[in-house]
Please model this.
Amino acid sequence: MNGTEPARAKDLLEFQRRIGYEFSDPALLEEALTHSSYAHERGVPFWNERLEFLGDAVLEVLISEELFRARPDASEGQMTRERASLVREEVLSAWGHSLGLDGLLLLGMGQRGSASENMIGDAVEALIGALYLDGGLEQARAFLNRRPREASHEQLDPKSRLQILCQERNGPTPYYELLQRKGPEHDPIFIVRALLDGKELARGRGTSRKAAEQAAARAALKLVEPPKEQP
Model:
């Protein structure tokens, strides 16, 4: 533990109450919340990368099962894309923030108080790995089922949502064309258009081609996605 052990122990106990699971081996939880920068600085012999590796695999299995059961008409390709979107960094880091992991993650002096989104997402995967080792697959599944979520379709990135929407309508797959790259090398702007069956749907811009494609897909969704029902 860190230098304020009683306070740390209290925080971890409260965290376990929050996630609805008490670890039989608290060392697994501590390992899941220890970043390599802290371990190397303090000479701690463990950090969370191995648990992250395991948790990534467990998460993939559980999300795959969830999609398999929830989307009986989806193709392998559709489920693969949806799974990738559901476990992307932004989703995991948002989940980690909702759990308060940003305040529990042990970081080195140079990182303290500035945990990156990647660090927080990795800690979520490490936590899943720790839950799997301590309580088995069912505890990992129970933790996953308690995650905050909107309808799964709403969690998808715009490109995935647009592609799934077009496939559900038995239409062609949208594709993207780079129209322009401008600006200095260190600060470029990309302009991309989204096309469907050779016809332009919308354009988008961003500081990378990937970001511009997402912007174009987001604009296209406003044209083709059905409006949300008002409560």
Remarks:
- The mean pLDDT is 87.
